[in-house]
UniProtKB/TrEMBL annotation:
It is a single-pass type I membrane protein. It comes from Populus trichocarpa. Residues 29-69 form the Leucine-rich repeat-containing N-terminal plant-type domain. Residues 1-19 form the signal peptide. Residues 195-438 form the Disease resistance R13L4/SHOC-2-like LRR domain. The chain crosses the membrane at residues 992-1014. This is Uncharacterized protein. It is found in: Cell membrane.
Length: 1065
């Protein structure tokens, strides 16, 4: 009985200890209060960071950026990177705030503008890891509070002037084992001497620092150093400082330009286990092999992104301890006998040969690597002719195989079938089409956990017989971008271990309810987008076993009815995308309330309607919200900042919102993207938008905003995309964007802006798109515009601009062949309207990256067309129509090889059309109508065979097809002709002259007729005057004016009086 009681007591103790480890403890009250005080200090005087830290919530361990001990409930880690707004100035850290955190061992304060400490640091006595990167600290003062510090992060923390003090102060931390000094300027600083007191230092990271030979010459004074990273330094890495680093085990000198001497030094590092040398501009001329001869202990070697020669593989052959070898993108082309370098690598476990061209011999060598666990042969130009299968026959231990972006044949799948240990198989973009019996390779792959068959042309036969559905341990299945069709295969329900499933971009019919997947209890991620999504009647007796974290069901516009009922049972969602599914109904508040960790919510074009009702509680996690292209109405709720304080992207375009922009939006300090376009918003654009420091994307186009532009966007230093077109804005551009040097696209078109283009326009040095069309701008184009050397598209059409098109302006615009995509936002949100091929079109999506064009049409420009325009070889659209340009068409236009639309109509151009324009094979629209051109039309070849008569009309001295005038026939004298230009710009507009003369003539006739009608004496005298010549045979008969006068006089009488007058006469 006693023994039984003892055993029972032991079991109870074990149970209590176990339960204690699992109890959901809140943090201690003293720590919660300290956290709130720390928040107040970070936000002083007017910051809004850390919105989830609220007094009413006692469970502070669930607050953002906090980690607690599962046993004690005490705070152990604080990650407070960039929590203080930099506009609030320097921050002096009160370290006494950390006194209650007795178990705090990791503290990150990166990027908070810390300029110094307040009070002693004894409060940080348990701290082991401290991150102070990106601050303004020039000196660290050691104390008992930091005596246990083992890891210190000091990235980008000092300038050259203050680096000396900082380095000297580091010597006071004797227990420091790991030191990160990335992105600092240490030129001229003797690092070894200044760090020699760090006797325990084992790891030193100096990546991306400014160093010179003096900076490294005494690194040998750190005898305990085992790990050294000198990645991407500013100059050639010297070797003198390495000679005494006998204990070094890991060396990273990647992304540098290396010389011979460093390999002599590397040869002496006999303890080296890891050597990282990618992108070192090795080209075969440097004898790097000699540096590897004595590296018998080397286990990890990375030589990727270099050009290797034969000798290096002789040296690799001697590295019998090598476990990881990375030769990615080394320009191996089959001529270098690399196989001989692999013959003795019996211990190799990881081999990456991707982005090379391989030959037969390499696979014979791979076959001998029986310890190999990971093999990456991505993009190796394998095309089925090389018998790679023979290299796989003995790879019984292989766990990871990547053959993507190759062309595979049948034999390879016979070999894969034998890899029974395989856990990851990637066959992305291998031109698999269903005719290759790949299902047979799954027969023995019972351990497979990840299978990627994406971007092939596989059909439903893949699921027949023995296929992916029989892999019971499969956790991730990717089959996007194939030819799968019909309903979801029922066998997918057998994959009970599945966590991620991607079937996007196929031709499947997927129910919104996802009912075929209800049995997959471990499923966390499902992507069925770009398929046919349909609504089915939910079975109320069924509920899914899964708790999804990510759902992507964007479609081509299918679906109907309400939100699927299974969503009401989901409580772990983080990402949800139902774009283009016609759900209807109101905004789903319950979805946000049920899923407190929801991060991204996209409900674009879902036919949702009614007012935009926000949830009752605050949700700080939500950062991306898109409800564009729905039918929401009413005003934008003013509570949006209180409910979603952590928003980074808010898209609400294409709805029926009215009223003004709520002031509360300006309080969302994290907001980067704001799209309120295509609504009925009105009033002035609020000035506080210019104070949103994080804003990068702003689209307020197609609304009813009026008044002037906001005075300044001074605080919006990150602003890159501004779309304000199609409003009722007026006044000058003034100084609005003077300090917005990062702006990439500026669209102010279709407004009522006046004045001239500002001379400070060159301040927008990164500008690529400038759209100012359909305004009332006047004056000449400022010379400063020529300094925008990044500009790829400019539209100044439909204004009142004048002067010459300056050659220096055009010639200094090198339209880039590549566009550095800025992809933090969905590219579909970026759009602009531009006239091309005589049609105004809206451009959206990836085409924006490649579009280049100039539109100066419908202005008052004069002078000749600068021939330098012909140097813009990448331009696609050029429209100079409806101006008063003179002179010939520059022959250099034949260099515009990429041009698709060329419109020079309605000008005063003369001379011949350059015959070499027929070499513009991309040209789809061409017009030189309404000019004074002469000579023969271009030959009817290539694209010019499609251009009709209207492209050349109203050029009286032009002949040849497709015009009816035949060349060689008698031609009238060459005199200038009118161009029917609305803004002709000459001494007198002939069309106005004719109208004025006609009106004056009619008035004169009417006045004379009225006088003769009223005064009988003058009337009789007039008739006697006109009858006298008729009796004189030598006189000239009265002409058209007299006859017209008589007819006019008769017409203004009443019928009775006219008859009576005729009888009297």
């Amino acid at each position: 009985m006693g023994v039984f009681l003892q055993m029972l007591t032991v079991l109870l103790v074990i149970m209590m200890v176990s339960l204690q480890g699992w109890l959901p403890l809140g943090c201690l009250d003293e720590e919660r209060i300290a956290l709130l005080q720390l928040k107040d200090s970070l936000n002083h005087p007017n910051g809004t960071s850390l919105p989830s830290w609220i007094k009413a919530d006692a469970h502070c361990c669930s607050w953002e950026r906090i980690e607690c001990s599962s046993r004690t409930g005490r705070v152990t880690e604080l990650y407070l990177e960039e929590t203080r707004n930099e506009e609030m100035g320097d921050w002096y850290l009160n370290t006494s705030l950390f006194l209650p955190f007795q178990q705090l061992n990791a503290l990150s304060l990166w990027g908070n503008r810390i300029a110094g400490w307040v009070e002693k640091k004894e409060s940080l006595s348990s701290l082991e890891v401290l991150g102070l990167s990106g601050n303004n600290i020039n000196k660290l003062v050691a104390s008992r509070g930091l005596s246990n510090l083992t890891t210190l992060h000091l990235y980008n923390i000092t300038t050259y002037e203050s680096s000396f003090q900082l380095l000297q102060s580091l010597g006071a931390f004797p227990n420091l084992m790991t030191l990160y000094l990335r992105y600092n300027d240490f030129r001229g600083r003797i690092l070894g001497d200044e760090l020699q007191n760090l006797s325990s230092l084992e790891s030193l990271y100096l990546e991306y620092c400014y160093l010179d030979e003096h900076s490294l010459q005494s690194l040998g004074a750190l005898p305990s150093l085992k790990n050294l990273s000198l990645r991407a330094l500013s100059d050639i890495v010297p070797s003198k400082g390495f000679l005494d680093l006998k204990n070094l085990e890991s060396l990273d000198v990647s992304y540098n330009t290396l010389n011979n001497s460093i390999f002599q030094a590397i040869r002496m590092m006999t303890s080296l286990k890891t050597l990282i040398l990618p992108s070192c501009e090795l080209d075969g001329r440097i004898p790097i092999a000699q540096g590897f001869l004595d590296l018998k202990n080397l286990e990890y070697l990375d030589l990727s992104y270099n050009t290797l020669n034969n000798s290096i593989f002789q040296a690799i052959r001697m590295m019998t301890s090598l476990k990881t070898l990375i030769l990615n993108s080394c320009k191996l082309d089959g001529q270098i006998p690399i196989a001989q370098g692999f013959l003795n690598l019996k211990n190799l476990e990881y081999l990456d040969l991707s982005y090379n061209t391989l030959n037969n011999s390499i696979f014979q060598a791979i076959r001998m690597m029986t310890s190999l666990k990971t093999l990456i042969l991505n993009s190796c130009e394998l095309d089925g002719r090389i018998p790679i299968a023979q290299g796989f026959l003995d790879l019984k231990n292989l766990e990871y195989l990547d053959l993507s972006y190759n062309t595979l044949n049948n034999s390879i799948f016979q070999a894969i079938r034998m890899m029974t240990s395989l856990k990851t198989l990637i066959l992305n973009s291998c031109e698999l089409d269903g005719r290759i019996p790949i299902t047979q390779c799954f027969l023995n792959l019972k351990n497979l956990e990840l299978l990627d068959l994406s971007s092939n042309t596989l059909d439903n036969s893949i699921f027949q017989t023995i296929g992916p559905c029989d892999l019971n341990h499969l956790q991730k299945l990717y089959m996007y971008d194939n030819d799968l069709s019909g309903f979801l295969p029922r066998c997918l329900a057998n994959l009970t271990s599945l966590q991620q499933l991607d079937l996007s971009s196929n031709h499947l019919k997927i129910p919104m309810s996802l009912s075929p997947l209800y049995n997959l209890s471990k499923l966390k991620y499902f992507d069925g987008s770009d398929n046919e999504i349909y609504a089915e009647e939910d079975d109320h007796s069924l509920s899914p076993k899964f708790q999804l974290e990510s759902i992507y069901l964007s479609s081509r516009g299918q679906g109907a009815g309400a939100f699927p009922k299974f969503l009401y049972h989901q409580f772990s969602l983080q990402y949800l995308d139902f774009t283009n599914i016609q759900i209807k109904g109101e905004f789903p508040n319950w979805l946000i309330e049920n899923n407190t960790y929801l991060h991204d919510l996209s409900l674009e074009n879902c036919s949702l309607s009614g007012p935009f009702l926000l949830p009752k509680n605050s949700h700080v996690i939500l950062s991306f919200l898109s409800i564009s292209m729905n039918y929401f109405q009413g005003q934008i709720p003013s509570e949006i900042e209180a409910r979603f304080p952590g928003l980074e992207v808010l898209f609400m375009s294409g709805n029926g919102f009215n009223g003004s922009i709520p002031f509360s939006l300006g309080n969302i300090s994290s907001l980067k993207g704001l799209d309120l376009s295509n609504n009925s918003l009105q009033g002035q654009i609020p000035g506080w938008i210019g104070n949103m420091s994080s804003l990068e994307f702003l689209d307020l186009s197609v609304n009813n905003f009026s008044g002037c532009l906001p005075p300044r966007f001074d605080a919006s230093s990150n602003l890159r995309y501004v779309y304000l077109s199609k409003n009722k804005l007026q006044g000058p551009i003034a100084m609005t964007f003077y300090n917005s040097s990062e702006i990439f696209a500026l669209d102010l078109s279709h407004n009522n802006l006046t004045g001239s283009i500002p001379k400070w326009i060159d301040k927008l040095s990164n500008l690529r798109f400038l759209l100012l069309s359909y305004n009332n701008l006047e004056g000449e184009i400022p010379i400063q515009l020529c300094r925008l050397d990044q500009l790829t598209l400019i539209d100044l059409s439909h204004n009142h601009l004048s002067g010459n098109i300056l050659s220096w302006m055009i010639s200094s615009h090198p339209f880039p062949q590549q566009y550095d995509s800025y992809d933090y936002l969905s590219s579909s949100q970026q759009s602009f309207e531009f006239t091309t091929k005589n049609v105004s079109l809206s451009y959206r999506g990836s085409i924006i990256q490649y579009f280049t064009g100039i539109d100066f049409s419908c202005n008052n420009f004069i002078g000749e067309i600068p021939p330098e325009i012909g140097n813009l070889s990448m331009i696609k659209v050029l429209n100079l129509s409806h101006n008063s340009l003179t002179g010939p068409i520059p022959p250099t236009f034949s260099n515009l090889k990429e041009i698709e639309s060329l419109d020079l109509s309605y000008n005063k151009l003369d001379g011949e059309i350059p015959p070499r324009l027929t070499e513009l094979f991309s040209l789809e629209f061409f017009s030189v109508a309404h000019n004074n051109l002469s000579g023969k039309t271009p030959a009817r070849v290539a694209q010019f065979a499609t251009f009709e008569e209207s492209c050349y009309k109203d050029n009286p001295f032009l002949c040849g097809e497709p015009l009816p005038k035949i060349c060689g026939a008698a031609m009238p004298p060459m005199t200038p002709t009118s161009t029917n230009n609305e803004d002709d710009g000459g001494f007198m507009d002939m069309e106005v002259f004719y109208v004025t003369f006609g009106v004056a003539y009619i008035i004169m006739v009417l006045v004379i007729g009225a006088v003769l009608y009223i005064n009988p004496y003058w009337r009789r005298a007039w008739f006697q005057l006109i009858e006298a010549p008729s009796n004189d045979p030598n006189s000239i008969s009265y002409g058209f004016p007299s006859i017209f006068l008589i007819k006019s006089q008769a017409s203004f009488r009443s019928p009775a009086r006219a008859q009576r007058s005729t009888m009297q006469e």
